[in-house]
User: Fold these one by one.
Assistant:
Number 1:
Amino acid sequence: MITDLIFVALALLTVVPAVWVAFSPNIVHAGFALLFTLLGAAGLYAFLGADFIAVTQVMVYVGGVLVLVLFTVMMTRVPQQGRRRHGLDHYVPAAVLSLAVFGLLYKAITSVQWNARAVPAQPTTAEIGVNLMSNYIFPFEYVSLVLLAAMIGAAILIREHRNGDGPDGDRDEEVAS
Amino acid sequence: MNVGLPHFLTVSAALFSLGLFAVMSRRNAVGILMGVELMLNAANINFVAFSRYVQHGIDGQLMAAFVIVLAAAEAAVALAIVLAMFRNFGTVHADAVQSLKR
């Protein structure tokens, strides 16, 4: 019964802040709510016996992606602009479609007879490492290429464009060197 | 209540629907990105839950790890685009930007 309580706590920790992420008019509050949702998801992974994935979630999402998101939110705040009133016509299609999707998924989940059976959880880190170096070596390498491309692409995207004013750019380079 | 696979799938479905709502209703581009992150996490919970209860192997967890990596790459590029958009247009509202250059 204690496991049920833990599961309910983790599920609430995941879903309730997600409601806040979806509905909060303040984007900074939504960003901080996303923190709790991601931590709750990490707890669910740990509950499912996926220890490596749980730690990766905390390190990559909470430590990396969320910091980037909050950084961007605070960089791009324009006062008196987020307070725009939303028309109801903006919310109605979104609410209808997401409720329909949830209804469909819930119907599918409850109507299927799952052949589910839990086996005792084992440490997964060693097995993940072995698989990444054997069965999954090509996806592993592809993903490293994708990360390199994303890094270069992000750096190029936010680069200052100096081609319009040559002397300015030259002066900056001299200062840099 | 004996926690099982359907409970995790229900949590994941709720998370996915909330992410879909955020993507469709938010005007701030960063808010849309938060919705996408919610949907990716919902898919990840499904991967790990099926790996635990049905497949009894490691493949689902490896898929979840790849999803996390790709989500990190996607967030980096998307936030770079948002910052460039803010610098060029002075706004981060997705429906206010309708041209590729200033």
Number 2:
Amino acid sequence: MVQSGELLLEAKGINLRFGGIRALTDVSFNVRKGEVFSIIGPNGAGKTSMLNCISGRYKPQEGEITYKGRSLIGRSINDRAAIGIGRTFQNLALFGHMSVLDNIMVGRHHLLKNNFLTGMFYWVGGARKEELEHRRAVEDIIDFLEIQHVRNEPAGTLSYGLRKRVELARAIAINPDLILLDEPMAGMNLEEKEDMARYILDLNEELGTTVVMIEHDMGVVMDISNRVMVLDFGKKIAAGLPEEVMADEHVRRAYLGEEDALLHDEEGEAAAL
Amino acid sequence: MSHVPHPRPCGDFRTSYSDDTSLFRTRFEGWSIYAGIAALLVAPLFLNDYYISQMLMIGIFAIAALGLNVLVGFTGQISLGHSAFFGFGAFASAWINNTTGLPVFICIPLAGILTTAVGMIFGIPAARLKGLYLAIATLASQFILQDFFARADWFSGGSSGSLAETVNFLGIELDTDQKYFYLVLFWVIVSFLAVSNLRRSRDGRALVAVRDHYLSAEIMGINLTRYRILSFGVSSFFAGLGGALYGHYLGYVSVEGFTILLSIQFLAMIIIGGLGSVTGSLLGTIFIMLLPQFMEEAASAMAVVFPAMEQGKAYIKEMSVGAVIILFLIFEPEGLIHRWRMIRASWKLYPFSH
């Protein structure tokens, strides 16, 4: 378990608003290199919004996100792959008509050098050689996630559990230092969840990838995370070791739906109720 | 597009990654293509002018249709201005030849490159627009270019059109259909190889990724704007190349030939052939080019049986072309290539296909 280590990702005072809706209010946290960090919270708590801020889809109005000591705010989304951030999506986001192999090869996009011209002349200009080298790396990922048997199937024809795995494979193909997983186990049965948990741990331990994960399955979260952060109504209500977080009174209230003074301290609504 | 199994025959194993990424999925497929090319190489010696000119036209239009398929089939964008780029290639090649005196066989690819630049400029709206809105934006490019052809006397000769020299390749004057056929065949093979290679390399995959899920494509490090415009560029290159070949074949280029009707015909070719399929572009072109002639024959034959039809023969032909296309889209919406894959699967997997 990673207790101390250098910071990989740090978010400070993130405020994200959509018109009058405050999706995230003053959220700060940090992720250390090599840990599995989970973000949990009830539906609509702002978990995916937080992930979207990191991956660049949303731009917070206030706050600062630094990754490896450099600011992430204002960098374009397609820079993320090159600096080592990969992610998967809550709703499947595979390239449905492409084969599984091609899907994963797209993850190598920023590592490949050939362009449309050298690609068209495939045999001369080194595109072929480069493609084959990266094919080897992709096959390693395919072995790692045990999806050899569907290699050539179009991604859109696979079962839900397999698609989630292919999406993970595609994110791994980026060679990320930080991987953002948005509900990697949603809609899976127990066996698939166990497999997925094993893959995430392997990814973390063997490849040394730092994982930031959103997950609803408390069992999984408690078992595999090093640290957990809890969001509710866009506010951070607890953070720390899994056991500490589970024991936290605010977290219990959030999940049981009880009123919590912590969420209303600014407006003073709690006093009125 | 729905998936049709395409198993390899027994004993045809792939033991290296380079084998597995080869263009032809089976050895038989490869040999059939080589045999087909060999047959085409000797075809001018045996076939009469009519067949050769038909094959020539199919080749020229197939190159342009292939370009449109990169845009529509690969990248999932739409263009209603493809014939304007086709026309631009034809005028550009004649213009380069007439002003600089470069040999025509060099002017033809140069015209393609010039059309690429123009296509990328007209592709800029694609950075922001999608679907029907993009269709309207490309419709504008059709009319802008058509107007440009009619007015820019220096470039296109205006309303009088411009003359396109015959091709002289290393002292051989390609003045007959038989000789010109080889030039077109060369460019058809080069274009189809290039696009097949594109499909299995980095940028081709990126184009398809942009079509299938642009949000995750962006996370994978694909610059959406760049690839959307690139797709217009590649598509215009083949349009321009096809147009240049067309211009030098006819010897005379005039603005009337490149209307929106032809743009729609190009769309029909790739939809009927199969969106996103390289082979489908060729099949669709053959279908669209030969259907009217086939229907003409059929209508004439009917008129012999039913003399009363003699007068309305021309209308019946036009109507039946339309009817065949409609029926085709209802019963085979995924194109000829899908039908071919089904036939291939049912014959390979017999009796276990379904």
